[in-house]
Amino acid sequence: MARLELDGVSKHYGDFYAAREVTLDVAEGEFLVLLGPSGCGKTTTLRAIAGFVEPSAGTVRIGGKDVTRLPPWKRNTGLVFQNYALFPHLTVAQNVAFGLEMRKVSKADAATKVNEALRLVRLDHLGDRLPRQLSGGQQQRVALARALVFRPDVLLLDEPLSNLDAKLRNEVRVEIRSLQQRLGITTVMVTHDQEEALTMADRLVVMSEGKVRQVGSQRDLYERPADRFVAGFVGRSSFLEGHMSGDTLTTPGGLAIKCARKIAGEAVVALRPERVFVGTEPVTTADNSFPGEVEFVSYMGGLIDIHVRLSEHDQVIAQVPNHDGSVLPAVGDRVHVGWAPTSAVFPAEHNGMDG
Amino acid sequence: MAATLSDEGPRGGALIFSASTLIGPATAIVALGVIGPLLILLRYSLNDFDPRLLMVEAFTAKNYVTFFTDAYYLGVFFTTVRVALICTAICLVLGFPLAYLLARTQTRFKNLLIIGVVIPLFVGNAVRAAGWMTLFGSRGFLSVTLMDLGITTEPTEIMFTELAVIIGIIAVNLPYMVLTLQSVLEGINRNLEEAAFSLGAAPVTMFVRVLWPLALPGIAAGTILTFILAMNAYATPVLLGGPEFRMMAPLVYSQFQLNNWPFAAAVAFLLMGTTLLLTIAASLATRQRFRG
Questions:
Q1: Do B198 and A150 touch (CB under 8 A)?
Q2: Which ipTM score applies to this complex?
Q3: Of the residues A93, A310, B113, B197, which has the fewest C-beta atoms closer than 10 A?
Q4: Within an 8 Å CB–CB cutoff, is residue A167 touching chain B?
């Protein structure tokens, strides 16, 4: 258990930056998730913490101690790999004991700790098995026990759930999270799965193109995305681009949209589908109300997506709950959509990638 | 049910040819070309030899007794085993890092590197030995260079020594060792090494506890292959070892040339038997409970 700090960590290979000025501060016992599409730098960042990537610049501190130049075996980190990486020639118990053996823990002491760790993941009855005799989920838990048994300063999880099937993934998700909380262990997890990230994290870090886009709680990211990328990557958004003067953004299609924030020049508004109202009359309760034509309706059971075209250039998606007796608009219907001015708006140059 | 059965015929394409049809021709060639002559040799090795009558029908262990009681032949035997063991050990030590590098490299030129390892095999043994001669002779490149640099005053004679033979055999065998090890090392996931590192194992410990045991099947295969090749080396010991240096394979040939077929047959059998025994011993020693 320790605090983990990354200070301006960069890694470049020639001209290519795998990570750029990554600065993070993970509190003791915190569960931090690095979230982003593949190639965003999240794995490079994790490997820099584990010691497999030597940063081109910046420092990594664990428990206040600078470990930037320490090799992996001299850092006290527990790492769980996507493919588990259990030693195939060792039994489950020997796998779990490996880290203790490296730390010269006495045999008797190690046996107790191995048993404890295996009980923690409910596998104490399978200690004599070989990894290949276990299911994927069980191997996963052995890998977790192996990484936890020596009480690492930081637990690192590299896409730990992506090799499991969907049902198992949900179970293991809860299990890892509760175990982490019970042990109070500082944890960094890498994933590209936003649902996984949202359900497990204390705090999330959204990354793209090697850069940290935003750090915050689930709510921060959803309610106050820092830029267009985050707005598109965490949850869904429809985007309306235009020129802003004062508090009004004018789109090429001629819509004048009221916003709560003032940005001079080109800007983009991000609308959460469930915050867009749809009706047959102009939406008087919202500051922004525009007529449009239903272009597409997607019936998803509990929720219904309605794509509404507002102009030649502008389209929004509204998501409405499927209430008993609600009347669904049909494609081609004339409707009115509206939204509050509090929707997120960013300068246009922030759009690193479309969501 | 009948429909299902008839469905399976064409889909399991291999069923068109039965297993025996597929391995039959190869088996027949092996049986005729190897086992047959071996049985004849075994019979010959129990015959008697007379300088005038040459091979005489008999049923005697005389040839084997001669081999094990004559210091010269025993010397040849131990030289062969010694040279083969040294060559194999050095091949393993030199080959492992090379194979590891080839297995782990990310470079686009990996295929070129592998071709680089195999290229020495494109050169015939005699041509290669000729090359070593120009290098090792008393007026060869190495000797002259050492003298010109003032490192030695006398010519260095490597040609026609055991050292020359060992170097020559290693040069032939190393590619076999490297390629065998490389294919096994490639099958060992890199993450396993990283897992060991992250658990606190320094590189040497990681090697001993993870890489070596997982690579053991490949190490055994490579070692056995190079050992067999070294035990049975013919051209290299003849060309680089010179007339004074004798290993088993050249000895067999020279006995055949002297028309002493019974004794040559006995030596051939001893060579094969020793190779086989040491190979079995090696596979038993490296046999493991767990496989990667």
A1: no
A2: 0.87
A3: B113
A4: no
